[in-house]
From TrEMBL:
Organismal lineage: Bacteria, Bacillati, Actinomycetota, Actinomycetes, Kitasatosporales
Protein name: Integral membrane protein
Domain of life: Bacteria
UniProt organism field: Streptomyces actuosus
Residue segments, region Disordered: 116-146
Length: 283
């Protein structure tokens, strides 16, 4: 998902050599930035517009990192799709569509423009309206950003993760505190792995979303093989990834590095179907 060294955006009369671009819309945003679309926008200092934004990340002639924000979402989407197919695409948003140019990058970028100094943040110039530079969230330790990245990985590599699940390892709860959608028996509850209490809380909060809609982007639906959909839901301290025709996985801030599978049971299918109906989807 990278541009070519010839791609350039004109911002403040300086050429920006494009390295990559991402979408920030209610249905598709870098989840490392937040649990929902408004949170992701807040991390960028942007208002959560209904149609969203495109972010163009690159370097100026001095090698400084810049993020150009455009409201021409379709243009950025076409560029990303073209690059993903191995095709060149000259991503040059019209100046009239440029919302702002922000110093720094909000995401980690592993490449650099050839022939330019190494990427570095521009110096703040308050008198010129250049404030502190954006920087990627810290993912060196377990926390909300790392938890959301883990959920991203599961969604992308679903078959791999699903194939590692031992059906007997499903998080379960005892009959007195049975949770809809979680396979359980009294005997299993005694040997259930840690985290089942957290899963109960997550499922309760997910069900609450059906009664009181959460902030935009907290529940998202995307393509999956066959007629299924991949569902993603996030909330304070947790992430859930599921296939509408299969099980779910839960990640918790309180359970560093743990991926907790949730069995389908008799009620999870209906919950996932209801979530899919309320979820935002890419256009």
């Amino acid at each position: 998902m990278a541009g070519t060294e010839e791609d350039a955006v004109i911002a403040d009369d300086d050429a920006l050599y494009v390295l990559t671009a991402v979408l920030v819309t209610p249905a598709q945003f870098p989840s490392v930035l937040g649990d929902d679309y408004p949170q992701a926008c807040a991390a960028l200092g942007l208002a959560p517009l209904t149609d969203g934004y495109g972010l163009v990340l690159g370097q100026d002639g001095a090698g400084a990192r810049w993020t150009v924000v455009t409201d021409d979402v379709s243009l950025v989407a076409v560029a990303i799709a073209s690059w993903d197919c191995g095709m060149e695409y000259d991503l040059s948003p019209d100046e009239r569509s440029v919302v702002t140019a922000l110093p720094g990058w909000p995401l980690a970028v592993a490449v650099a423009a050839p022939g330019l100094p190494a990427p570095h943040d521009p110096d703040p110039e308050p008198e010129a309206g250049i404030g502190p530079a954006l920087s990627p969230p810290d993912t060196s330790g377990w926390g909300p950003a790392q938890r959301r990245l883990g959920a991203d990985e599961i969604a992308v590599q679903w078959s791999t993760w699903r194939g590692q699940v031992d059906e007997s390892s499903f998080v379960v709860a005892g009959a007195p505190e049975a949770v809809p959608g979680v396979e359980s028996t009294g005997e299993e509850a005694a040997s259930a792995p840690g985290g089942s209490g957290g899963v109960r809380r997550v499922l309760a909060e997910v069900r609450a979303y059906l009664e009181t809609p959460p902030p935009l982007g907290r529940v998202r639906s995307s393509f999956a093989p066959g007629e299924a959909r991949t569902l993603r839901a996030d909330g304070p301290g947790w992430s859930l990834v599921a296939r509408t025709d299969d099980i779910a996985f839960v990640l918790l801030d309180d359970e560093p590095g743990e991926v907790l599978p949730v069995g389908r049971g008799p009620e999870l299918p209906a919950l996932l179907e209801a979530l899919d109906k309320m979820a935002v989807r890419p256009n």
